[in-house]
Amino acid sequence: MSQRSQKPDRGLRDLLRSSWMRTSIKLALVATIAGFIIIWLLKLFNVGGLQLFSDMESFFVNYGLAGIFFATIAAGTIIPLGSPALVVAAALFDIDPLSLILVATVGFTIGMTINYILAYRFGRPFLQRKMSAENLEEMTYFWNKWGWFLYFIFGLIPVFPVELLSFICGFLETRIATFLLLSFIPRLIVFTVLAYFGQNIATWIRAV
User: Fold this and answer.
1) Does the residue 4 lie in any domain?
2) Which site from 148, 161, 176, 207 is most exposed, i.e. has the minimal number of CB atoms within 10 Å?
3) Predicted pLDDT of residue 56
4) What is the pTM of this model?
5) Number of domains into which the chain is organized
């Protein structure tokens, strides 16, 4: 019997219990809770009615898209900038939602593509500087089991570390056209929801 066939089959529960998943989910939940607390404080202290808020809004409208573009590129890599939080924050300052959604989605996809290219070019030695051998083996196993379905679901759920899976895509030399499509579409959906959510929160903050 081969060594591979002796390994127990692992399912979704095992995926959620893996150390890299637990760490990513914990960080995302902490960031989400902190974000809601900040929003509540903005409402509590009526920040929406202050001149400072109006000045920041003007700045974001004029220059914010460029910042969001470069920030989401960085967030598409493993730099923990939190692209969903960036989109909500930008929407609070009345940036045009369609422009925000497109810029953030393109930026994040570029960041993911950087991961893909680095893993494709430098292979296992590069990845083992980014993650443990155990995590690499786990992610490769789950990728071989669920493939693009797993990647698509990770892209749709902001707390899941889809950025790490983009390394696996490059490492396993998956098709670049499919990779780009399945990187772009889920984040387009997510950022659309978050941008309009941010707009509604901004209206609530400004309400007297």
Assistant:
1) no
2) 207
3) 62
4) 0.80
5) 1
